[in-house]
Amino acid sequence: MNLSFEKYHGTGNDFVIVNPDACVPHRSRFARRVCDRTDGIGADGVLFLALEPEFRPPRVIMTLVQPDGSTAEMCGNGARCAAVWAAERANADEVMIDTLAGTRHAKIHDGGATIEMGAPEFGPNDVPVAGDEPLIETRVGDYDVTAVNTGVPHAVAFVDDVTAVNLERDAPPIRHADVFPEGANVTFASPCDGGFDQRTFERGVEGETQSCGTGAVAIAAAARRLGLTDGENVSVSPPGGDLEVTVDDRNATLTGPVEREFGGDLRVSNAGRLDLEA
Predict the structure, then answer these.
(1) Is 75 a residue of the active site?
(2) DSSP string over 239-266
(3) Fewest C-beta atoms under 10 Å: which of 55, 107, 262, 271?
């Protein structure tokens, strides 16, 4: 199998982009191979994008397959990368992105994109969590967490210093806790000058990522719910860069930079070997 690809990242959250016109019959297996950072290209996911430029604004259908082979409903940084990719091809400054979490509007600006993220949901059926009440500042594992769905479920824990958290040890018990029947991303946040620092252990990646857009929105939404911020504009700083979030009861937006890293051709042998020509 031969196909062309491109590599993009949003604040360090990196993705291999493949046009679904290419024949990839086993997307889960393909993503596991391609995302491998030792034997593959290395990425936090594969974005299969189908552009429909005849619409105004243009539309792009986005499917994100993660390194473990699962499909994610939504990815904020992935959607921003998809928006820039689509806008460049359609010669547009805004696009509509169809995701499994719904259709999202994105605006392109110099160096990046702003995307609508929908309304954060705290309801037990929306996250989802086990039980009849929202999970707000509730002990799970070794932390008090607040559960919110920002396209995917997040367990948000506010701590004094995110750099002091042993993420690989402390996040998995929360990610797999019985209270989260579909699992959850685990996001830690600590206050910093003008906003919050962020670290996220992502479901599907099963490890820490340099940035997580849905996690940044989850921090802003949880902070607003808990009274930790009194404004609608929140700055969030994951390890890979800075993101800006606006959030109210009806909608949230995510703004940040997007960069194209490189492109190339990929040959996948029947034995599963990847031959890359970048």
Answers:
(1) yes
(2) TT--EEEEE-SS-EEEEEE-EEEEEEEE
(3) 271
Say which CATH topology domain 2-117+258-277 has: Diaminopimelate Epimerase; Chain A, domain 1 (3.10.310)
Indicate if 81 belongs to the active site: no
Q: Which residue in 134, 113, 125, 121 sits closest to 217, CA to CA? A: 121
pLDDT class for 270, splitting at 50, 70, 90? low
Give the residue-averaged pLDDT of 230-240. Answer: 95
Query: Residue 149 and residue 266: Cα distance in Å, rounded?
Result: 35
Half-sphere exposure of 130 (CA within 13 A, CB side): 9
